[in-house]
Design brief:
Length: 413
């Protein structure tokens, strides 16, 4: 496609001489602009992908893909329905739970929390909980015991073996009025899921204990259904409905978290458009530097034309010269972006240690670590976009160079 003569001339024009120093500076800025644009796009898209995947894994790991509620606040005969749902194709696990809000107090510190009652075998079947126990053990998860999120335990100054008092918002009715229902429970373990909302506001207790505390004997709040493919949640929900009472309510994860994940998707698309402008600006710099180079090399182009170089050859020389800036910049951006994205958490920790500041507060960003998931398809799209814009930026200057009239350029020589 390119002859050795065209390659030699294009590389020679890239190495600016002393009188062409300003043109070289613009070319270097163009190269760095494309590199920064490509690298920034890869990093930002990887972080956004990481956010979505981490939040999805944690939200679905705690809440399940489908939640089946009864006609009232209590679901009676839940085991029969759970067995029928387990028999549906695509259903991986069905867990009956009891859920309620409480006020937790210990060491003169009070905090609102959500209590979830599980059978011990169901809790062990939840890897996001069972595999993230930070203190204590699940062996002691029995009557009058609880498991707290690690941030909630730290906030209240609780250690393993100490007691926490739970106060229910619905009290006991007595002759003297409504008395708040409260009871002390022993802390047997703490968990660290890595999501601030759960680590600072969730409490797990045995199901029989939760049934007594929330006055739900022989009943549960709802069934949580885990399926093999989260995208099939609506379809499986429609299969569950005939198995239960007509008044049964079924909530799927897409409906419950729709606004949350839609917001992430919108932010992701907007960031992509904004950061693409960096590459576009760098492409305009390539156009300006190439036009100046063509203007400066008008005399050389005329001599080459008189020596037999065709217009196509001249166009390929400047096309290759300008495109080389884009190719090198895109390659540097690709390498830098991939390297940064795959080591972003280590880089964050290093910067935090250097500056003494918290760059990724879990209270604000929900996650305790900065996630990044590199999507090969997106990386390819970014690289192709960088190469495409760089190539398009060289077309007009190269065409202008090929259109130079040798007689006109050498008239006053």
């Amino acid at each position: 496609m390119f002859s050795s003569f065209e390659l030699m001339m294009s590389m020679r024009y890239l190495r600016a001489r002393r009188q062409e120093g300003f043109i070289s500076v613009i070319a270097w800025f163009s190269l760095m602009g494309i590199a920064l644009g490509v690298a920034t796009l890869i990093i930002v898209m990887s972080v956004m992908n990481g956010f979505r995947e981490e939040l999805l894994d944690r939200i679905l790991g705690i809440n399940g893909h489908l939640s089946v509620y009864g006609a009232s606040e209590q679901m009676i005969g839940f085991d029969d329905l759970a067995d029928q749902v387990r028999g549906l194709p695509g259903v991986r696990m069905v867990t009956p739970i009891i859920e309620g809000q409480v006020m937790a107090t210990a060491n003169n510190v009070a905090s609102g929390a959500i209590v979830r009652g599980f059978r011990r075998e169901d809790l062990l079947a939840r890897p996001i909980i069972a595999d993230n126990i930070e203190g204590g053990t699940l062996e002691n998860f029995d009557d009058d015991s609880v498991i707290l999120g690690v941030r909630l335990a730290r906030k209240m100054g609780l250690g393993i073996g100490q007691s926490v008092t739970l106060i229910s918002p619905t009290g006991n009715v007595t002759a003297f009025g409504t008395v708040p229902r409260m009871k002390a429970y022993k802390l047997v373990a703490t968990f660290n899921i890595g999501m601030y909302e759960y680590d600072s506001g969730f409490i797990f207790m045995p199901m029989n204990t939760a049934q007594v505390f929330f006055k739900m004997p022989g009943a549960v709040s709802n069934l949580e259904v885990f399926i093999d493919n989260p995208d099939d949640a609506i379809e499986i929900g429609n299969q569950i409905r005939p198995l239960s009472d007509e008044k049964t309510r079924i909530h799927d994860w897409q409906r419950v978290n729709a606004s949350f994940f839609n917001a992430i998707q919108v932010e992701r698309n907007v960031m992509f458009l904004i950061l693409t402008l960096i590459i576009v600006v760098a492409a305009f710099n390539i156009i300006s530097s190439m036009i100046m180079l063509v203007k400066d090399k008008g005399h050389d182009i005329a001599i080459l034309r008189t020596m037999g170089a065709t217009r196509g050859s001249i166009m390929r020389i400047f096309l290759l010269s300008g495109a080389s800036v884009g190719v090198i910049g895109t390659f540097l951006g690709f390498v830098g972006g991939i390297s940064f994205a795959t080591n972003i958490e280590s880089i964050r920790q290093w910067i935090q240690g250097l500056t003494g500041t918290d760059l990724f507060a879990a209270e604000i960003y929900f996650l305790s670590q900065l996630p990044a998931v590199v999507d090969p398809a997106e990386v390819v799209a970014v690289v192709l976009m960088g190469l495409g814009l760089s190539f398009l930026a060289t077309l007009y200057p190269s065409w202008r160079a090929a259109r130079i009239d040798p007689a006109e350029a050498l008239r006053y020589e």
